[in-house]
Design a protein that fits this description.
- The protein is of the alpha/beta class.
- Helix 1 packs across helix 5, helix 13 packs antiparallel against helix 14 and helix 17 packs antiparallel against helix 18.
- The longest helix has 30 residues.
- The termini are far apart.
- The structure holds iron/sulfur cluster (SF4).
- The site of iron/sulfur cluster has 12 residues, from helix 2 and helix 8.
């Protein structure tokens, strides 16, 4: 019999996957260490929590952490009985469940409003369950809750000076929605407690729930038997079809039957996967290459997406470009010239970045990016946020072509890509001596983390400079990779 308490986050784990909840209780040794990316997400969450508390000045924080829960519960009980108006991080227990509540506001009639702060710009289903389990515990513990509110980020917020929590957040009344869920929770809890009484983990198979609504920390354990180049790697294949293939005992992409219901593009990828031979549609590829006009500007941005905007004029979660790399070719096959700009982490990188682009991009020629809609969207936002350069920046938009297009349209399918078409897959397949392996910054996630670290201003001497050098190598490689890939595609036409 399971006699311990489960926390709100464990309750949410159980809703996602019973096995996740079981493993979390009995096999934490299978969890990977917290990654720097996760740490950065936690830090962002803490910053949002601190800002949310500014919405209710004068509130009292129960600051005992998870290692001192008895003290947190005792302190919360004191604050409830001594008439404290607003409590932050109050700890409550009912039955087998313990919750910490972001914000509790006492009303004049003695009832309370429960406010859950989220770093999201929309109310999601999982938020309703997260709040409902708190209501279950609070009401069970004897508190009368009048309203349940979700404090979410207002996506229309634009930073202008110090951030005012009342403008940054918006409160959504979710009292009715959470009340509708409440009756189900007792049964769910019973199910979890009974399952946790078992000595064996439930036999839950892998599936969409491994990353929906949250990435599960036990993927390394549950997915270890999945081979490389599996059905789970087939781009844009629905979970329903993946589950059907799994039920048929098919895990390898190359073993998918020709008769299986796939899109035309997936069928071509499957044909290449089975034959091991590249597939070339010269007509489609020629059509793409014909659109390229010289001088040619291979362009790539690196961005960060801070929840709390850093610079005036920026919005929550805005993709903020901090680096641009440009490889410029005057004519087909010409030696490319390289230009770049990287923010110093001390001031808004965007003016310097705009200056670099407008100085080095001439009035004619194609701008080529890999997944060009991303770069085009960033330029559109720069034009909006820096109207003095708006006209010049907007004029660039019509000149974009997308180097991903021939791969997306399956004009060229290489067997080493195994159906994928990201730059990180295409480059080593087409240009084997150019790889991202071994680079200190080797992907967009690394680049974001590196820049967040530079922004923190807390790095030991020399480390920020080293990270800036690593970022230059990485972003420069992205645009040089485009030069080489286009050359490769052009050679195929001969
Ligand atoms: S990886 Fe998937 S199946 Fe395994 S515990 Fe996590 S959610 Fe459950």
């Amino acid at each position: 019999m399971f006699t311990k308490r489960i926390s709100k986050s464990q309750f949410m784990m159980g809703l996602q996957c019973l096995k996740r909840l079981w493993l979390y209780n009995y096999r934490r040794d299978l969890m990977p260490p917290v990654s720097p990316e996760q740490r950065q997400i936690f830090d962002q969450g803490h910053a949002i929590g601190a800002l949310a508390r500014e919405y209710f000045p004068g509130g009292v924080l129960v600051d005992a952490d998870y290692k001192h829960l008895p003290h947190a519960i005792k302190r919360t009980a004191e604050l409830v009985s001594d008439g404290t108006r607003v409590i932050f991080e109050g700890a409550f227990v009912f039955g087998n469940v313990l919750v910490r509540c972001d914000i509790l506001k006492r009303n004049s009639d003695g009832s309370w409003d429960l406010i859950e702060a989220k770093g999201s710009t929309a109310v999601k289903d999982e938020h309703l369950r997260d709040v409902a389990i708190q209501l279950y515990v609070l009401e069970g513990a004897g508190l009368k809750i009048k309203k349940a509110l979700l404090m979410r980020i207002d996506n229309t917020f634009v930073k202008a000076g110090p951030i005012d929590a009342k403008k940054f957040f918006t409160l959504e009344d979710i009292t009715k929605e959470t009340a509708a869920i409440l009756p189900e929770l007792g049964g769910e809890l019973e199910r979890f407690i009974e399952m946790l009484g078992s000595k064996e983990a439930p036999e839950t198979g892998i599936g969409q729930h491994c990353s929906d609504p949250y990435d599960c920390e036990f993927r390394g354990h549950c997915w270890k038997g999945i081979p490389e180049h599996s059905i789970y790697d087939i781009p844009r294949l629905s979970w329903e079809k993946k589950n059907t293939l799994k039920a048929m005992g098919i895990l390898l992409f190359k073993n998918v039957p020709d008769s299986f219901d796939l899109s035309d593009s997936q069928k071509l990828a499957l044909q290449v996967e089975k034959s091991g031979e590249a597939l070339l549609n010269k007509k489609l590829l020629a059509k793409f290459i014909k659109k390229i006009k010289y001088p040619l500007y291979h362009i790539d941005f690196e961005t960060v997406m801070p929840a709390i905007p850093i610079y005036d004029g920026a919005r929550p979660y805005q993709q903020l470009p901090f680096q641009v790399s440009l490889h410029v070719q005057a004519a087909p096959g010409a030696e490319p010239e390289h230009f770049e700009y990287l923010g110093d982490g001390k001031s808004d990188p965007r003016p310097g970045l705009i200056n670099c682009m407008l100085k080095n991009i001439g009035p004619e020629g194609t701008l080529l990016a890999y997944n060009a809609s991303f770069e085009a969207k960033r330029i559109e936002e720069l034009a909006r946020d820096f109207p003095e350069s708006g006209e010049a920046l907007t004029a660039l938009l019509v000149r974009f072509e997308d180097l991903m297009q021939p791969f997306l349209e399956r004009a060229y399918v290489h067997p080493a890509c195994h159906g994928r078409f990201s730059l990180k897959k295409i480059l080593p397949a087409l240009i084997p001596d150019m790889t991202y392996e071994g680079l200190s910054v080797a992907n967009g996630g690394d680049a974001q983390l590196a820049y967040f670290n530079i922004l923190s201003g807390k790095l030991p001497p020399g480390e920020a400079e080293q990270l800036r050098e690593d970022l230059k190598v990485y972003c420069g490689q992205d645009t040089l990779a485009m030069v080489k890939i286009l050359e490769h595609l052009s050679r195929l036409m001969r």
